[in-house]
From TrEMBL:
Coiled coil: none
Organism of derivation: Yanghanlia caeni
Protein name listed in UniProt: Dihydroorotase
Function according to Swiss-Prot or TrEMBL: Catalyzes the reversible cyclization of carbamoyl aspartate to dihydroorotate.
Residues carrying N6-carboxylysine: K108
CDD domains: DHOase
EC number(s) given by UniProt: 3.5.2.3
Keywords for this protein: Hydrolase, Metal-binding, Pyrimidine biosynthesis, Zinc
Domain Amidohydrolase-related: 16-320
Length: 359
C-alpha cells in the first residue's frame, strides 16, 4: 500500500493578498466568503469611482467592517488591508497621509485601460508618477502592479511578458528599493523575472491560474466564467506557476483575485473579466497543491510569505481543511436580483474548509 493520504490539513490562518470586495449590496453578499477563510485581505481599490484618497479608503474600510459585522459570522475579526488607486495625479502628501493611518498598506497601479475599472489608471508611469514612486520607496509602502501593457499591437497572451521589458525593468532600475508586488502572475516569463530579480519584489498567484490553462475558456464551447485578466495562458505557463508557488522561494504568495461580476454581465456579448473564487478559495488552492504533490508547501504560500513581504505579523489562529467532498454551488446571491456564478460551479472538490480557530 502507498502512504496514507492526509485526511486533514491544519494551517496557520491564511491571508488573501489580492481581493475585490466591491461595494454596496455586492460587498454585503460576498464579504463573509472571504472572512470565513482568511484573517486579512488586501482589498483592491478599483471601485467606481476608484479609491484614490486616504479619506475614501478610510470610509470604504468602515463599510467593509460594517458588512462583516452584519454577516452574522461567529468570528468577526477579519481585517481589511486597504489600498489606494494610483493615478497620474496622486501626490506624495496623499501617500504619506495614507501610510500614516496604519490601515492603508499599499498602492495599486492599473495601467489605464488594462482591466476592470482601470479608466482612471496611470497613462505613463515613469513620465507622470515619479514623485509618487519616490514617496512610496521612501515610505517602504508596496506598489501593487497589474502587469500588462495596454498597447493594442501586443497580443493579449503576450501582454505580461512585454510589460516586464517595457515597464517593470525600467521602473525597478529607477526605484531599486521600491517594494513591488507583481499581481496575479500568469506566465513563465513572470515567474523567472520575479524569482531572479534583485531587490524587494514578490508576486501573488491565483488559484485559477494554478488549476487551469487557456483551454478551460474554450472547453466544449465558450465559457465566460473562466475569463479573467490577465487571461489564462498555455500549459507551460501554468506549470511554471505551480513550480513557483510550491517552491521554497518566499517571493510567491496567495492572492485569489476573487472578482465578483453579476452572472448577466459575465454571460454577455462582451463579458466582464474576473473569476469568483472567494467562496472556495482554500479548497481550490489545496486541490492545486495536492495535484502537484506539494501540500506541505501550502502553508508557506498561504500564510507565511505574504506577511513577511508586507512586514506584518503572521496570524496566530489556524484554518483546518478536511478531505470531504465539496460541491460548488451553481449560483450565489449577489444582492438585489443579481446572482453570481462561482468558478467551477457544479464541480466537486475533495477538500473542504472545516473551521477556523483563533486560539
Ligand atoms: N482580474 C480580473 O479579471 N478582474 C478584476 C480586475 C483585475 O484584477 O485586473 C476585476 O476587478 O474584476
Ligand atoms: Zn489586475
Ligand atoms: Zn484583481
Amino acid at each position: 500500500m502507498s502512504d496514507s493520504v492526509p485526511q486533514t490539513l491544519t494551517l496557520i490562518r491564511p491571508d488573501d493578498w489580492h481581493l475585490h470586495l466591491r461595494d454596496g449590496d455586492t460587498l454585503g453578499a460576498v464579504v463573509a466568503d472571504t472572512a470565513r477563510q482568511f484573517q486579512r485581505a488586501i482589498v483592491m481599490p478599483n471601485l467606481r469611482p476608484p479609491v484614490t484618497t486616504t479619506e475614501q479608503a478610510l470610509e470604504y474600510r468602515e463599510r467593509i467592517l460594517d458588512a462583516v459585522a452584519q454577516a452574522g459570522l461567529p468570528d468577526t475579526s477579519f481585517t481589511p488591508l486597504m489600498t489606494l488607486y494610483l493615478t497620474d495625479n496622486t501626490s506624495p502628501d496623499e501617500l504619506r497621509m495614507a501610510h500614516g493611518t496604519g490601515v492603508v498598506h499599499a498602492v495599486k497601479l492599473y495601467p489605464a485601460g488594462a482591466t476592470t475599472n482601470s479608466d482612471a489608471g496611470v497613462t505613463d508611469l515613469l513620465g507622470r508618477c515619479r514623485p509618487a514612486l519616490e514617496a512610496l520607496q521612501e515610505l517602504g509602502m508596496p506598489l501593487l502592479v497589474h502587469g500588462e501593457v495596454t498597447d493594442p499591437q501586443v497580443d493579449i497572451f503576450d501582454r505580461e511578458a512585454v510589460f516586464i521589458d517595457r515597464v517593470m525593468i525600467p521602473l525597478r532600475k529607477d526605484f531599486p528599493e521600491l517594494k513591488v508586488v507583481f499581481e496575479h502572475l500568469t506566465t513563465r516569463d513572470g515567474v523567472q523575472y520575479v524569482r531572479d530579480a534583485e531587490g524587494p519584489i514578490a508576486a501573488t498567484i491565483t488559484a485559477h491560474h494554478l488549476l487551469y490553462n487557456r483551454n478551460a475558456i474554450f472547453q466544449g464551447g465558450l465559457r465566460p466564467h473562466w475569463y479573467c485578466l490577465p487571461v489564462l495562458k498555455r500549459e507551460i505557463h501554468r506549470q511554471a506557476l505551480i513550480e513557483a508557488a510550491t517552491s521554497d522561494s518566499p517571493r510567491f504568495f496567495l492572492g485569489t483575485d476573487s472578482a465578483p461580476h453579476a452572472r448577466d454581465l459575465k454571460e454577455h456579448a462582451c463579458g466582464c473579466a474576473g473569476c469568483y473564487t472567494a467562496l472556495h478559495a482554500m479548497e481550490l488552492y489545496a486541490t492545486a497543491f495536492e495535484r502537484a504533490g506539494r501540500l506541505d508547501r501550502l502553508e508557506a504560500f498561504a500564510s507565511l510569505n505574504g506577511p513577511a513581504f508586507y512586514g506584518l505579523p503572521t496570524n496566530t489562529g489556524t484554518l483546518t481543511l478536511e478531505r470531504q467532498p465539496l460541491t460548488i454551488p451553481e449560483s450565489l446571491p449577489m444582492g438585489g436580483d443579481a446572482t453570481l456564478v462561482p468558478l467551477a460551479a457544479g464541480e466537486t472538490l475533495q477538500w473542504r474548509v472545516a473551521a477556523p480557530s483563533n486560539v
